[in-house]
Amino acid sequence: MTTIKEIRELLATVKDLDNPLFLEFEKDTRSGVQKEINKRKKAIQAELDEDHRLESMLSYEKELYKQGMTFIAGVDEVGRGPLAGPVVAAAVILPKNCKIKGLNDSKKIPKKKHLEIFQAVQDQALAIGVGIMDNQIIDQVNIYEATKLAMKEAISQLSPQPEHLLIDAMQLDLPISQTAIIKGDANSLSIAAASIVAKVTRDNIMKDYDNQYPGYDFAANAGYGTAKHLEGLEKLGVTPIHRTSFEPVKTLVSTKKDK
Prior knowledge:
Elements: H1 4-11, H2 20-26, H3 31-56, H4 59-66, E1 72-78, E2 87-93, H5 114-124, E3 127-133, H6 135-141, H7 143-156, E4 164-168, E5 177-181, H8 184-187, H9 189-212, H10 218-221, H11 227-236, H12 249-258
Helix pairs in contact: 1-3, 5-9, 6-7
């Protein structure tokens, strides 16, 4: 009789739910065999669901492929809302019909999976560009304009140059055709790839700043206004990486000047 271990190994090679091996093994009354069948069916269904999700996130890219375009860049940013640190944008060109398992809006990817998916994007992308605008530029031109500058910088680094840009809810004054997509990081794989590159890049920057400026919990909060961050501001004051045009930093700076 075939052992349960042998059946598990055979089922691991099965890729579709109507494979005749399932019918054959379903005749086996051992509970361990039935458990392995159910486990493999669930795994196959999860793979099919993921493939369907990824396929739906390629809809914008596929329309552009039909128009004869190959080099399509997804563009996204991270860090518009924090009180400290830079805004980081990324631009990514993926190969045609490229699907990376687990790739999604970076906010929807579990933190423990960030590096793994970031590495998969690094391994498979045709081109990646990163633009970083620090807090001083943000304070000079405002966060919206700084975001655009970061995106342009990221795009300028791409080689090959993109034929079209898919951008998360933004239009850029560049001589490249583009599509602004609301919630683009959840609706386009190219933008999702840019989202995870920008996220991991910025998180690493903020971890370095946490070592440089301890007491604000930058490694955990990435510069957002958490309770620990606000507590650090009250106790330790404003650092050189804080955005002085953002409240409550702005008030703290003006209060210090008035003293």
